[in-house]
Write a structure and sequence with these properties.
This is PAN domain protein. The chain is mainly beta and about 190 residues long. About 15% of the residues lie in helices and about 45% in strands. Strands 2-4-3-5-1-12 form a six-stranded antiparallel β-sheet, with helices on one face. The protein has a four-stranded antiparallel β-sheet with strand order 7-10-8-9, with helices on one face. It has a two-stranded antiparallel ribbon with strand order 6-11.
């Protein structure tokens, strides 16, 4: 009985502009961040984190994503995320990630020629979003270019030059530091 009590979270670290991607346990539609946190608490020990999409233009489908972990992080101006903290967990250190914001960090109709990480397009990235996330997840990637017509994702070691090319989308990774805006104690 004591073991299960000490495993329950007793506080939540809340971040703005941070998206925990992948590791989804479930998704749902909620009114706000508080509702999303409540779903994670209801889920129990398996839910270690969550991301709430606060974009008011998204009126259908899930906007709350429950996570089994928070290891894969990216910047996203419309995201608010929380990490469940147990009594024994220290307050979280800042999260520093190489991020490409999907709203603010994309360069439409832009090519970043050269500096390809490999001589072939990324095999698993089949959309611009998947290409962006492949770059975010790869520590050696500093930028990407998505060729829509060919459905090709090119991960880049650098972004030295850019040029206007219709139908291409690129993004450049920037180092972002996220500190919780609040650590909310849970009354249990």
């Amino acid at each position: 009985m004591i073991e299960s009590y000490t495993r329950r979270p007793d506080r939540i670290a809340v971040y703005t502009g941070l998206d925990f991607f992948g590791s989804d346990l479930d998704s749902a539609r909620t009114a706000d961040l508080v509702g999303c946190a409540a779903l994670c608490l209801e889920r129990g020990e398996g839910c270690r984190a969550f991301t709430f999409n606060a974009d008011e233009r998204v009126v259908r489908g899930p906007n709350c994503f429950l996570k089994s972990d928070s290891r894969s992080a990216d910047g996203n101006a419309v995201a608010m995320s929380g990490v469940m903290l147990r009594r024994s967990d220290p307050d979280p250190a800042p999260i520093v990630v190489g991020a490409i914001d999907p709203k603010l960090g994309l360069l439409k109709d832009t090519d970043l020629p050269g500096a390809d990480l490999t001589g072939r397009p990324h095999a698993k990235a089949t959309t611009a979003q998947a290409c962006r996330l492949a770059c975010v997840a790869d520590d050696t990637c500093q930028a990407f270019t998505w060729i829509k017509d060919r459905k090709q994702c090119w991960l880049k070691a650098a972004a030295v030059n850019s040029r206007f090319v219709p139908g291409l989308t690129s993004g450049i990774k920037t180092t972002m530091r996220y500190v919780p805006i609040k650590i909310i104690p849970l009354d249990r």
